Input
Amino acid sequence: MNVLKEKGKILSVIFALVLAFGIIAPSVSYAFATDGFSTEPVSSNQSNTDPLAGSENWTPEQIAEFLKNNNTQPTTTQTSSALEAKAEPYITVKNNQYVILDGAKSVLTTSEYSIVSNVVKKSNTDVIAGNLLINPENKVAAPLLTLRSFQEIEYTSGWNYQRLIFRSDRAINTAISFFKFISHGYSVEAAYAAAIVTIGGTYGAPYQVLLIATAAFAETFILAQVTASMAGTLQWAQDHWPNNYIAFDVNKITHMWQAYKL
Output
């Protein structure tokens, strides 16, 4: 059973933020690092690991373990950024889409290839949906459309990450408020799912119904925590680097995120 209806829920928040704020830059400066994991990270005390990583493969027992152990992520086979390093040389751009070269099959395991392939497919879907143009030299995708003349948020992405660049305090504060708003919505949804579990248990509902309700609670409860943590990461960056350009990256494979100043 999948804990998430669609793992892309977390990443879709990024797109929603850009659209809600109504600001997309028309061009990209390719001078800064494009790997998504360089320069200054957030505080070492600031957690930036998405507990949803690998959750699409959780069993009912793992869901129960997550809820029982104070929201500790169950053991999964999800790989780290080492997988990205292995796959990167075999990712290219053709016809404004990311393509995996055949040589990747001799380097990646079947499981690794499947993970990379799924991420590439989702990234290609994002390119089409967002009307993005991929720079074939560094494989960075950026929007072609400008919604406002004064760009305070710049959006770019790669085959394995999404990035928001904030160019004003107003933009950062808007993002923080947005993530908190999304988190609150998930919290309300989780409370509703938890209520269903309680009522079902009281009246002896079938185990299958209880399991579905528990999964719904786990999904929304974790999403609430994740988006709240995203808000916390940006708030930390805002507190430590005021009046600076700040980038916020979300890794599509590990579902980790970080904020850093450019």
About this structure: The longest strand covers residues 161-166. Helices lie at 9-21, 60-68, 82-87, 110-129, 169-202, 207-240. The longest helix spans residues 169-202.
